[in-house]
Amino acid sequence: MCSPMLRALWQQFDSLLLIGGVLYRSFYNESAIVTHYQLVLPSEMKVSFLNLIHSDAAGRLIYAMCMQHVIRRAWGIDLIGPFPPSYGYTYKFTAICLFSKYGICVPIRNKEASTVARVIVDYIFLTHGPCFHILSDLGPEFQAELVSEIFKIFDVKRLKTSGYRP
User: Fold this and answer.
1) For 137, what's the count of Cα atoms within 13 Å in the CB-facing half-sphere?
2) Domain 71-160 in CATH 3.30.420.10
3) Disulfide-capable partner of 106 in 48, 61, 93, 99 (CB 3.0 to 4.6 Å)?
């Protein structure tokens, strides 16, 4: 067994680079060219680093700006159900920010693409702002042309998981 951090780094192995004994994560554009490097902090340094950033007089302002950026990074979405009807609702739309673990759960009456698209727009994009990435399974409600068009309009890249692999 290994730690979640080690597992995450192993999954990103191809994007990791050691420069002068310091670990960096590479980010690439669509042409597979490195756009920038991100320092990978050791776990024992993360708390002191965040304290250092937020300890000045503008700490609250920096935190507010940082959170807006973090929240926009990526969301994982899925549907659960059907459940026994309650006021006509039989499914639940769930979304979670993959960074902060902030979750949203919205009861819905059906799992049609129009219903799912409306929930994504109302409860994620209009409430928290459009994100850069959305991770979903291969459910037909997420693959529909309507949802794809909304992602295109909001410039959201869709990431897909394999079906029936929660």
Assistant:
1) 13
2) yes
3) 93
